[in-house]
UniProtKB/TrEMBL annotation:
GO terms for biological process: DNA integration; DNA recombination. The keyword DNA-binding applies. SUPFAM superfamilies: DNA breaking-rejoining enzymes. It comes from the Bacteria. Residues 10-123 form the Core-binding (CB) domain. Coiled coil: none annotated. The lineage of its organism: Bacteria, Bacillati, Actinomycetota, Actinomycetes, Pseudonocardiales. This is Tyrosine-type recombinase/integrase. Residues 332-353 are annotated as: Disordered. It comes from Saccharopolyspora hirsuta. Keywords: DNA integration, DNA recombination, DNA-binding. InterPro entries: CB, DNA_brk_join_enz, Integrase-like_cat_sf, Integrase_catalytic, Integrase_recombinase_N, Integrase_SAM-like_N, Tyrosine_recombinase_XerCD. GO terms for molecular function: DNA binding.
Length: 394
């Protein structure tokens, strides 16, 4: 496909060069890969991407198998030779084909946003096209609109589920080779609301704790190359210190042109010294759920210590709250849970916005699952009065 795609470039540059320039707008490699996935850009075109070592055993692939309906291959397959040829009707036809292929509205909205960003942030600014065709798409007709402030569909972890995850990580911290590292990651994820990409992207010198036993701060590298500092409460900072006490120096290979330059050392590393991948964060959460709330057909654990642990009251509490999350748990839920529980415990929305690194309060409001307001709703008092005398009382 790469040769065919080159036809979409301008006379002075190929499409590969154009997409590389666009992706360099984003400092994070994970962000670049996300846009490349939604646009259908070959991964070897992504600046900074290094193919995985084929000799090493790997888990699930980061990228799903391309369907051919991503924006770039779709344009090629439909005979377009220039980005300037695209009109709003073409974009809507593409969205319709995605819907027919079974893509969800949320996925189509995300892919459409990627196309819009490519036009708005690169092609229009470079003078390669006159307008952004996505701007004229009727999102409501495409079922892609979500009103401002509408709560997200991301699953919210209850306050007790958050406590269960922290307790599970604590109980396994000294029973797993990387238990202390994983516990520190879970503590930061739940205790600060950072994104999984931000969590694995922090470096050793991003962590700062002025006094032992006191609070700490962590500099995270957010979207749009925006850094921010998040507070680590003493219990969270203690888990980071416990991990650092056993952490071995990372072996960070030098890249071409960087010999002699100062290399940022990742805070969370694998057994080989490489930076922990974002997929590992979800794997840790799933392992915690599966350990304390295994499927019904799972064989009993072989280790005696684990059998004894699972028979404890603490394990029963964890299983009760993590069992329903076992199949769907995702690290982004920690971000939504942080926002909701912080607000319900009295935090100002503006402070939650700063904690999460949102540029708009409206974005933060979309993270708030207002369970407390539902529980305190006047409907609970009104309904019994309306039904008194003819509906059996409970």
């Amino acid at each position: 496909m790469s040769k065919a795609v080159a036809a979409l470039g301008q006379p002075d540059k190929t499409s590969r060069e154009r997409f590389a320039e666009f992706l360099r707008i984003y400092a994070s490699l994970n962000t670049r890969l996300a846009y490349a996935t939604d646009l259908g850009i070959p991964l070897d075109w992504v600046p900074g991407y290094r193919p995985p070592d084929p000799t090493r055993r790997r888990g699930r692939s980061r990228r799903a198998q391309p369907s051919g309906l991503e924006w770039l291959p779709w344009c090629v397959n439909n005979g377009f030779t220039s980005f300037a040829e695209i009109r709003v009707e073409h974009v809507e036809r593409w969205l319709a084909e995605l819907a027919e292929a079974g893509y969800s509205d949320a996925t189509r909205a995300r892919m459409l946003s990627a196309v819009s960003a490519f036009y708005r942030k690169y092609l229009v600014r470079e003078g390669l096209v006159e307008h952004n065709p996505v701007a004229m798409v009727d999102r409501a007709a495409q079922h892609l609109n979500r009103p401002n402030g509408t709560p997200s569909r991301t699953v919210l972890w209850s306050f007790e589920a958050c406590r269960a995850l922290l307790l599970a990580a604590y109980l396994l911290a000294d029973r797993h080779r990387h238990g202390r590292r994983d516990r520190a990651m879970v503590e930061i994820l739940i205790g600060t609301g950072v994104r999984a990409e931000e969590l694995v992207g922090v470096n050793l010198d991003d962590y700062h704790r002025p006094e032992p036993g006191g609070p700490a701060a962590l500099r995270v590298h957010g979207k749009g190359a925006k850094d921010r500092r998040v507070a680590l409460a003493p219990p969270v900072a203690d888990t980071v210190d416990a991990y650092l006490a056993e952490r071995k120096p990372a072996r960070v290979p030098a890249r071409t042109g960087q010999v002699g330059a100062r290399t940022r050392e990742p805070l969370f590393i694998t057994r080989t010294g490489a930076r922990v991948h974002v997929s590992h964060v979800q794997a840790v959460l799933r392992r915690l759920c599966a350990t304390f709330a295994p499927p019904a057909d799972a064989p009993p654990p072989r280790a005696r210590w684990l059998r004894e642990l699972l028979a404890s009251e603490q394990a029963a509490f964890i299983a009760a709250h993590l069992g329903p999350l076992r199949e769907t748990i995702h690290p982004h839920s920690a971000r939504h849970s942080y926002a909701t529980h912080a607000k319900n415990r009295g935090a100002e929305p503006r402070q939650v916005q700063r904690d999460l690194g949102h540029s708009s309060l409206t974005t933060t409001e979309g993270y708030l699952h207002d369970a407390e307001n539902l529980a305190l709703s006047a409907a609970h008092d009104l309904s019994p009065a309306l039904h008194r005398g003819w509906l059996p009382q409970r």
